[in-house]
Design a protein that fits this description.
Rossmann fold; globular; 46% helix; 241 residues; seven-stranded parallel sheet; 7 helices
Amino acid sequence: MKKVCVITGGSSGIGLSIVKLFLQENYLVFNLDLQPGELGEFRSCDVTNVQQVTNIVNDITNEHAIDVLVSNAGIHFSATIENTSEEELDKVFNINVKGAFAAVKAVLPNMKANKNGSIIIISSDQALIAKQNSFAYNLSKASLASIAKTTALDYARYNIRANAVCPGTIETPLYHKAIDRYCAKSGADKAQIHQEEENLQPLGRLGQPEEVAQLVLFLASDKATFITGSLQVIDGGYTTQ
């Protein structure tokens, strides 16, 4: 019988790489995303709608036990606190934090009943450090790390593990959109900015989505059964500087 993985935001970037890898490892993968996904079992879902997330997860659990949740859906936003409007703050938190709240809360009854589960929340190196011009995004990613840690403690007795993966700068469509927006505002050269980003990393390059997916797969596996409540950094050494 195939193990079952539910992922939010699995249609592009890191999420898509996770879907691909879990399918290769013979998982049945359900992708909850607004953007249509060609891989796995796609379910159109707005993660900011808690009831919608709950209904979709309940439909899945009517037929399957959920072994793994990967809460990955998120958006990026660059601004200082003064340049962040209330509406922009709400949007970042609704998708990044409320979306994770909805997904984690929805899978817990099934995982508790089966006394088994691995919850993996995609956070960021910004759960550990601050970066300039990143007030709302940084705040949301620190919140995701908190969700992983409190969930780990509250549900350890059910053999449910919860961990946060904290990627550094990963070359995804989200990364390129952020660079494009910056260059459009500043007039900077994209190739130069990209090179500067690579130079900031001790390993001299950006991370790749496939590398993050391998860490997620490890945390989901039986090789990681004593790992819970952790923040797993995958950042090329950036936060050690």
